[in-house]
Amino acid sequence: MAGLSLSDLFRAQAKAGMSPEAPETSVIFVWLPGGPPHMEMYDMKPDAPLDYRGEFNPIPTNVPGLDVCELMPLHAQCADRYTIIRSIAHKFADHGGGHKRFLTGRDPREPTGFVNDAPAVGSIVSKCREHIRNGMPNYISGTHPGRAGVDTYSFGAAYLGPSYVPFNVPGDPSDEKFSVQNISLDDRLTDRLDDRLTLLTSFDQLQQRIDQSGLMQAMDDASAKAVDLLTSDRAKQAFDLSQEPEELKDRYGRHAWGYRALLARRLVEAGCSFVTMVMENPYVSGINFLKQGTYNWDSHAVNCHLFDDAKIRLPIYDRAVTALVEDIYNRGLDKRVMLIVTGEFGRTPRINSQNGTQTGVMQPGRDHWPNSMSLLVAGGGMRTGQVIGATTAKGEEPKDNALTPNDLWATMYRHLGIDPEMAFIDHSGRPMPILPYGEPIQELL
Questions:
Q1: Considering the entire predicted model, what is its pTM?
Q2: Quick one: which of 226, 347, 360, 422 could link to 366 by a disulfide (CB 3.0–4.6 Å)?
């Protein structure tokens, strides 16, 4: 019975008479909450003053002119397969406001807090792809078990309703005890499911006679979709990482981040339209917490020693993300699957030092900075092996090809074949376009 409660998630999603074919295109969205330090990763400034440039050095990649941090050597080997965008910016410096601004394509009414007043892009994709019934949820997220709520990262669906939030998969997929709830039934419950389905079938004629509004049919469709998920082998197979070669698992890294990336590839291959995987805390999967480290990418000096934390965090990130990039191309998914890797903003170009809360000693850090940031995109049939945009000499703001998150989402919707001018009705009864403004990034097309 608990499994059948999944119908609540799918209620009123279905459009009668639509084909159950899998989508031809999909998106993997890797979310780095807290704000990755762009000047320690993809926009290094070795000629800037010391209190801007930081400790690490850039290294060349296999694409001339595209340098990355020395802690990410695997990025250097496959730069021809991704693009770095250095000129996206917005104006919301709070985590909550930054999450909402980036993930919805709109200025939030409240610049703090994580509850959306507009749908996150994943929910919009779920709504636009609601007719697809292939045994897979259309929108899946992977998070830490204690961070599974949709409002933790502003993944909420707002006026689209709770049917369009992600099917969340909490936990560490590299843990041998990892399991996915609500995609299979205990053997002891199989007979009960059969009995319940028989009982539901017995009500069909009664429902058809009494239901003139279509409400009962919508409920039937929702229940059918939930049963499809519970009884289909497709979802169970997609989540089964034991089917992957051991050497590929090594390439991704036997860590929560690596296994989430590998799982994301399996899920889009199985037909999921939009997969969000959160890479937040690297101190899992047997890696001891660093006293001068921090949980997410929020590298204030009071939270962590920026450079010591990066020495743990960036190599894990380097392995997981580049394995995903290479896997997408090696499996011939590079036109079908678009990969986006980003956080909500960058970090202050100038380093500051404060007493660490955990260490009690002075240590370097960077604060919130939405005025400049860097992100990675790959696949999607896009042009790769390039840098788009540039920031000023100290990394403070875009100086060439200034873009907003909306331009990224316009590019993504184009890949998915979704018209960004399509509108949905908000709580006040007004039609709200999917994206109020933004144009596909021409250099990617």
A1: 0.87
A2: 347
